[in-house]
Amino acid sequence: MNFQTKPLTPGLYFVATPIGSARDITLRALDILASADLIASEDTRTTRKLMEIHGIPLGDRQIVAYHDHSGEKPTTRLVDAVGAGKSVAYASEAGTPLIADPGYELGVAMADAGYSVTAAPGPSAVIAALTVSGLPTDRFAFVGFLPSTEAKRKSTIADLRSWPATLIFYESPKRIKGSLCDLRDTLGGERQAVVCRELTKKFEEVSRGTLAELADHYAKRDVKGEIVVLVGRGDENEAEQNSVEDALRDALKTMRVKDAATAVAGAMGLPRRDVYQLALDLGKDKP
Ligand code: SAM
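^ thats the input. predicted complex w/ S-adenosylmethionine below
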């Protein structure tokens, strides 16, 4: 038996569960699932099955379905249960609750009511993918799922172009071809990227290459399963250049080129000569 049953302090416990391999669960997560007075779950069948695999009896405890869109009544019911001194464990279908999964509304409601919110941390596809990607891990931005319409998807990607961080997206097999093409077209085909599929599962696959290579590769094959896409960081100089340009454009609305350059160079601690050259270029469009 890998778990212990012990009384828990009243409160909400967010429990991370496996993203594939059923044994990827912490001992503390098992303790909480074994001990909580009430279990709430995005998918009661998956949670029940997970408990069965680990030999955790449900006993006469309840396991209730809960999503963020479940509405006020189910939220109030869980908040009231904690108010009455109970411990509530919440698990999403897979991975860490709240990470592209429900739980946010419940956590906020508990915190607003002044009750304790605790995490039993564990697997999350974003971290597993980053770990195996080979891309820089010191700064990363989790974007979650991209919008489903092409125009919105492209504008979301364009906003991320110069972020100096590894970008991480969740994707579905149905949309991977389109998303890789949009990423290539918007961020540039030469950016390094990684596609992670079915992590921790039997058919785990990690494909590395440039966005152009990966878009080509996936255009030629249909894939199944769960996918994370990671893209290497944007150019910090490009980011800096963009912010200098934005500041100059703003300044040029009210100032002459020379004054705008002096103001922006001073504010950003940059050599005036370089900023002046940029201001001259931008100022050309000025009537
Ligand atoms: N809460 C989960 C977590 O912490 O990762 C994510 C839930 S979200 C609804 C599901 C998405 O996560 C999938 O569409 C896929 O993009 C990603 N994902 C989940 N499990 C995965 C796995 N084993 N391999 C690759 N991606 C996975």
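Residues 111 and 270 are 45 Å apart (CA to CA).
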